[in-house]
Each structure stands twice: as structure tokens, then as C-alpha cells.
């Protein structure tokens, strides 16, 4: 069993990104600039956004955060997005999800200028991805492809089973794995909460990508020997042992599944760190006008 080490790869790629950011500074006279909008005080969202901002600074990007309380109106938020769209010194805009129930996330996402949509959630970017045109690829699936590429994992001809059909991870991941690219060229099956007998499919997986949001959902009896396992789970539980006050669990029972796997991502230290890389690379590409 070999570890797909998100910590090692993300640190390595951050050095490359920092060098490229320095080039952007000399070329356009300013740093790549990512703006995040955060509504409310969800613990997970706070942590992820803080990490995105911190990593921007680390690689020499400018980052800005606009915070709103839970009771912000949809109109106020849409006005802010419109203002950020028209600011030429901003390369990337992300609105952290989930949003409070009274705000329609699609309305907010769709208003972000697709040329600054470094999350890759806008219909133009998702559509262009389907057509194999240059686009911003959603950060988590993008990060996973970078991790597989870094270790030279060959996926051509494999049966890839994706567990979870979210627009952020499962759906775009299934598209990327079936594309004529590396990694890719897989035969893809998508399982979700309404799939009866998920085990029947996971047992057939050469590569298993799990993004269902349930701690230890995939157990050792559900995978075959030699499987490649990508665990997207970020299940936070309160802990009295860790400094942060919580502990992160994946969707895969790592301890028992790892001995059967050929490659596996740990949680933490796997996909989560690569998501940030996907976001940084999209922001850099935007600043360099590589896509639009
Ligand atoms: N919520 C969970 N993942 C993400 C992400 O990648 N981007 C944004 N904006 N919100 C999220």
C-alpha cells in the first residue's frame, strides 16, 4: 500500500505556484488576487476559508475576505458580487457554501463573472468542462487529478466508481475521470444515496472516489484487493484531545481499507490540502488570462 500524500504534494506545488505568482507580479504589476465571501459562522466554513486566505499569502497572492452575518439579505450579497465582478484588480471570487436557507446559492453562483469563477461552479465553466474546452475546474476534483498525476498513477481502462453526486465533487469528478486525458480514460459508475446495494458497485472499483460525507462509510468488505482509494470526506467531530477542538474523519475506514489498497489518500493530509492547490492554480490561471 502506498500513500497519496496530499501534504507532500501540496507543499511541492505551492513552491511552483509561488514562483509563478512572482512572475505575474513583474508582468502585470500586481499580485494574483483572490476574494472570498463568507456568510455566518459555520465552524467548517470558517476553517476552510481561513486556510484558503493563509495559503494565498504563503504563495504571494493577495487575499481579501468579506464577512457577513447570517441575516444578510440575498440582495446585499448579490450587490457585493456585482461590485467584485467589476473590479479589475480581482482575479478570483469565491462565495463559501453552504449559505443560509433564505439565500439561493444558485443565484449567487450564477452572478459571479465566469471569468473570475475560480471555484468552477458557474454553468459556463461546468458546461465548457463537459465540452473539453478550457475552463476553471472545480477545486477538489482538480486537486485530485493533480495528486494522481504527481504519483504517475495510471487510470486508463480502469473502472472508476464515484460515491456521491454533488455538483462540487461527485459530478465533475465523474466527468474528469471519463475524459480522454491523464488521469482519465476510465469507465465511470456514479453511486449515491438512492443506489441500492452500493457495495455491489464498490467491489467492482479499480479506483474508488468517495465524497458522501459519512464517517467510515466505506469498510474493508466493500473494496477489492489492489483498489486505488480517494477519500474526499471531511467529517468534523468534536475532540478534547486535539488543539483545534475537533478531529477530522474521512468517508473511508482507513485503518481496515488501507491494507487492501494499492494507493490511498489519508484524512487529514490527503484531498483537503489538494483542494487548496486547485483553487490557487485556478486563481493564478485567471491572473495570467490563461483561460479567458
Ligand atoms: N463548500 C465546500 N466546498 C467548497 C468549495 O470548494 N468552494 C466553496 N465556495 N464552498 C465550498
TrEMBL record:
| Pfam name, any one | THF_DHG_CYH_C
CDD domains the record matches: NAD_bind_m-THF_DH_Cyclohyd
> Carries keyword NADP?
yes
GO biological process, any: tetrahydrofolate interconversion
| Residues binding NADP(+), per UniProt | 164-166
Q: Which GO terms describe its cellular component?
A: cytosol
Q: Which UniProt keywords apply?
A: Amino-acid biosynthesis, Histidine biosynthesis, Hydrolase, Methionine biosynthesis, Multifunctional enzyme, NADP, One-carbon metabolism, Oxidoreductase, Purine biosynthesis
Pathway annotation: One-carbon metabolism; tetrahydrofolate interconversion
Question: What are the residue boundaries of the Tetrahydrofolate dehydrogenase/cyclohydrolase catalytic domain, all occurrences included?
Answer: 4-119
Q: Name one GO molecular function term.
A: methylenetetrahydrofolate dehydrogenase (NADP+) activity
**Family label:** Belongs to the tetrahydrofolate dehydrogenase/cyclohydrolase family.
Q: What is this protein called?
A: Bifunctional protein FolD
**What's the source species for this entry?**
Mucilaginibacter arboris
The protein's gene is named: folD
Amino acid at each position: 500500500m502506498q500513500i497519496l500524500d496530499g501534504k507532500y504534494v501540496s507543499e511541492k506545488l505551492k513552491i511552483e505556484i509561488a514562483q509563478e505568482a512572482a512572475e505575474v507580479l513583474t508582468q502585470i504589476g500586481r499580485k494574483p488576487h483572490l476574494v472570498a465571501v463568507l456568510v455566518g459562522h459555520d465552524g467548517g466554513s470558517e476553517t476552510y476559508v481561513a486556510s484558503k486566505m493563509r495559503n494565498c499569502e504563503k504563495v504571494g497572492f493577495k487575499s481579501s475576505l468579506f464577512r457577513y452575518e447570517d441575516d444578510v439579505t440575498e440582495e446585499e450579497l448579490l450587490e457585493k458580487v456585482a461590485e467584485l465582478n467589476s473590479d479589475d484588480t480581482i482575479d478570483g471570487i469565491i462565495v463559501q457554501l453552504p449559505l443560509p436557507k433564505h439565500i439561493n446559492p444558485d443565484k449567487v453562483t450564477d452572478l459571479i463573472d465566469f471569468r473570475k469563477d475560480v471555484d468552477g461552479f458557474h454553468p459556463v465553466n461546468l458546461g465548457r468542462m463537459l465540452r473539453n474546452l478550457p475552463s476553471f475546474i472545480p477545486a477538489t476534483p482538480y486537486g485530485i487529478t493533480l495528486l494522481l498525476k504527481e504519483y504517475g498513477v495510471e487510470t486508463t481502462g480502469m473502472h472508476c466508481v464515484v460515491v456521491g453526486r454533488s455538483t462540487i465533487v461527485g459530478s465533475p469528478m465523474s466527468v474528469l475521470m471519463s475524459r480522454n486525458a491523464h488521469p482519465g480514460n476510465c469507465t465511470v459508475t456514479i453511486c449515491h444515496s438512492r443506489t441500492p446495494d452500493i457495495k455491489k458497485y464498490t467491489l467492482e472499483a479499480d479506483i474508488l472516489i468517495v465524497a458522501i460525507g459519512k464517517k467510515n462509510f466505506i469498510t474493508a468488505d466493500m473494496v477489492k484487493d489492489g483498489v486505488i482509494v480517494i477519500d474526499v470526506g471531511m467529517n468534523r467531530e468534536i475532540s478534547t484531545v486535539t488543539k483545534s477542538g475537533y478531529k477530522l474523519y474521512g468517508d473511508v475506514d482507513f485503518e481496515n481499507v488501507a491494507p487492501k489498497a494499492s494507493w490511498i489518500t489519508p484524512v487529514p493530509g490527503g484531498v483537503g490540502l489538494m483542494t487548496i492547490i486547485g483553487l490557487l492554480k485556478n486563481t493564478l490561471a485567471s491572473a495570467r488570462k490563461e483561460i479567458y
